[in-house]
Amino acid sequence: MRRSLLELIRARARATVSTRDNLTVFGNERKVRCPMPRSPGRPPQTSRAQLRDLARAMFAEQGFDGTSLASIARAAGVSRTTLFSYFPSKRDLMWEEYDERLQRLEAFLVSAPRAPVVSLLTEAIQVSVSFRVDEHDDLARRMRIVDDSAELRAYTALRSAEISRLLVAFATSRASGADPQLLGDVTHALMAVASRATRDWAATPAPEEDLDQYAAARLAPFAGHVAALLEE
pTM of the prediction? Predict the structure, then answer.
């Protein structure tokens, strides 16, 4: 399992293409050099974060399906080429950090110590749902946008299934003597609890703890019960 996960991470790294057209660097922040003429008073550069925030505001107002990349580029005063250099697809404007989170999860699984598999699965799920309190409002807004778009709901389900497959493969490698079907059921059940916890956290007006801590508290009693099924 260790070898296959490392190969997966390396394959993902090789597949990553760095696009440098129209980019410049100011301090620690990458910014876009905008080739289109600008009206007086418009800032000469538009940062990645500004493009992302503008797009999400437009999605919230007009709906994801009703907002085109061309309209986002026009509103930002940049070309579509410039927008594509940062965000290859419209969905990336919603979940740009997904690949980074998946890489952190893969790194955790590769280096995970010897421990009961349910405990490791619980920790791994916490890694995959790590949002800070100061990111709460943005996540809550994004989840509302997802709920209103069939395309985003399907995409989110596919990415969640990708995490589930990774966790099931990990659990199977660590608990080789257990029933594979039972391991799969346990993993999917833990993911379902975490998904419900994420929605509840997002719906909380002012949470006092980060999402991973909130999810850990929700997972703990359930994890204790399912661990007994595996006789851990």
Answer: 0.73
